[in-house]
Amino acid sequence: MLPAMSELQVNGDEGDAPERAPRPRRKGIYVLPNLITLAALFGGYYAIVMAMNGRFEQAVIGVFCAAILDSLDGRVARMTNTQSAFGEQMDSLSDMVNFGLAPSLIVYEWALKGLGKVGWIAAFVYCSCAMLRLARFNTNIGVVDKRFFQGLPSPAAAALVVGFIYVMDDMGFREGIRDIPWLMWTTCVMTLYAGLTMVTNVPFYSFKDLSLKKTVPFVVIVAIALGIALINLHVPGMLFALFVGYGLSGYAMYVYRRMKGKPVSVIATSTDEPDEAGLHR
């Protein structure tokens, strides 16, 4: 009896269909925010192509358009509830091209090429600092105070570099740039300043705590209208002045906080963890 029952049990087990593990559900890709990111990437790619052909004004416009589109994709994703890890990675890679690689190649072709090794090293320093800044931003996103950026954000650094080219081009410096020593060295200093400021711990205001849904005094609308009018007086010069002002604002804030005895770090966590040594200085 026992062997027979055992054989029946074995035969019965073999006849049962094995249970299959459920197949993982495929993750789709949201079209709208990623389409904006692709459009921003096209702006950076277009800027590189224009610089290769000596059309630097169009190259500058390409970087500016990429910066505008980069500021929209994240907002559109939050407004439409279409955030995704894929979109975050895609946006970061696009930023490396638009605000790291493109500005460094544009400024090298425009003026730094005339400085030989010093020129391409300065361009490489800017490009590598943009990569380091983006990598640090991605890893510290959960511990940084949302009101501030840790170092100069890469779109602002790119605007500082190509904005200088834009204003010089408007002033008539369009040909023979590599034969003007003071202009080449000024460009080199500007490029190094923008690149190295990206990897500092200097706090730059992010404007993320501003809400368009809140009411504001009437005088704020008047100030905005006056600002638009001033920019239209001389677009290249006024835009570059804004870029320079923001590029210096972080150091001004750093000095102000030091003088007031306030913490200057943008890291929003405690100082007790050993992995955070040096982040709060």
Shape: globular
* Rg: 26 Å
Q: Structural class of the secondary elements?
A: mainly alpha
Provide mean pLDDT, rounded: 84
CATH homologous superfamily classification: CDP-alcohol phosphotransferase transmembrane (TM) domain
Main sheet summary: 2 strands, antiparallel
Secondary-structure element string: HHHHHEHHEHH
Number of helices in the DSSP assignment: 9
The overall strand count is 2
CATH topology: Four Helix Bundle (Hemerythrin (Met), subunit A)
CATH architecture: Up-down Bundle
Helical content class = 55-70%
**Unreliable runs:** 5-10, 269-281
CATH class: Mainly Alpha
* Cα-to-Cα separation, first versus last residue: 81 Å
**Beta-strand percentage range:** under 5%
List the strand order in the largest sheet.
1-2
Number of domains: 1
Describe this structure in words.
With 281 residues, the protein is mainly α. The protein has a single domain, classed as CDP-alcohol phosphotransferase transmembrane (TM) domain (Four Helix Bundle (Hemerythrin (Met), subunit A), Up-down Bundle), CATH 1.20.120.1760. It has helices spanning 2-15, 31-52, 56-79, 85-110, 117-140, 154-170, 181-198, 218-233, 235-260; strands spanning 148-150, 203-205. A two-stranded antiparallel ribbon has the order 1-2. Helix 3 runs antiparallel to helix 6, helix 4 packs antiparallel against helix 5 and helix 8 (218-233) crosses helix 9 (235-260). Residues 5-10 and 269-281 have low confidence and may be disordered.
Give a short summary of the structure.
This protein has 281 residues and is mostly helical. The model is unreliable at 5-10 and 269-281 (pLDDT under 50). It contains 9 helices and 2 strands; from the N terminus they run αααααβααβαα.
